[in-house]
Amino acid sequence: MNTFYNQAVWVQWVIAIFLAVIGFYPALEIIRIAYDQPLFYLFFLLFVPIAQFATTPLFKLLGVYTYYSPMLLGYMANKKLIDLHSGSSFDYLWVMRKFKAGVDTRNRLLLYYLEGLIHIIEQIENGRIPNTVVITGTSYFFKEKTLHRLGFEFKNPSLSYRINLLANFIDLTWMYSVSQGKLQFPKLWKVKKASTTGGILFEHKEMIIDLYRKLSIRTIL
């Protein structure tokens, strides 16, 4: 888990609230100025990365984010739906900063994603998550072939889903570039929505664990 959450709970709350308050201040300024100059609303594209970073600790403490590994979380996860997302820029800076950009970072991210899937499977085994739960995500990082082998099916994302990706373009670009070891823009227009169920994911347990073990050996080497 992100080492930030190893601190005393009250310390986490104080810092989380402070970051959230500071993080939302730019939004108020944008709205104030844009009242007379509407073009200033375009600055919300710059505000989104700030907001994502600033609200992460608070959303985790409030249960909006449920972490299955340090870099894989579910947004508003419940017994019917787990909407998976990569960790935010806050998680990225706390967890991934010790790894070299490029292959090392990319492999570590994949390990964390697989670790998260294994954790979900364990919760299904323990009865904490029903096998009927729908699990969704995007093909943003995994290759579609790999996700298909793990039991995921694909469909084109909705317009709102694409708008959300576009709003997070700055964060996605810099994090993707770090994982690639060079400036590279993610092909968001090619992203597809991946989905499966808890039962199907459980059926692929051995394959996921085997992939995790092979990647772990390669990463250590």
Outline the fold blueprint.
Elements: H1 9-34, H2 44-62, E1 65-69, E2 72-75, E3 81-86, H3 89-95, H4 103-125, E4 134-138, H5 144-149, E5 153-155, H6 159-167, H7 169-180, E6 193-197, H8 198-203, H9 205-220
Parallel strand pairs: 3-4
Antiparallel strand pairs: 1-2, 2-3, 4-6, 5-6
Describe this structure in words.
The chain has about 220 residues and is an alpha+beta fold. The protein is about 55% helix and about 15% strand. It contains 9 helices and 6 strands, in the order ααβββααβαβααβαα. The protein has helices at about 10-35, 45-60, 90-95, 105-125, 145-150, 160-165, 170-180, 200-205, 205-220; strands at about 65-70, 70-75, 80-85, 135-140, 155, 195. The chain has a 6-stranded mixed β-sheet with strand order 1-2-3-4-6-5. β1 and β2 (about 70-75) form a beta hairpin. α1 runs antiparallel to α2 (about 45-60). The longest helix has 26 residues, at about 10-35. The model has no long low-confidence stretch (mean pLDDT about 90).
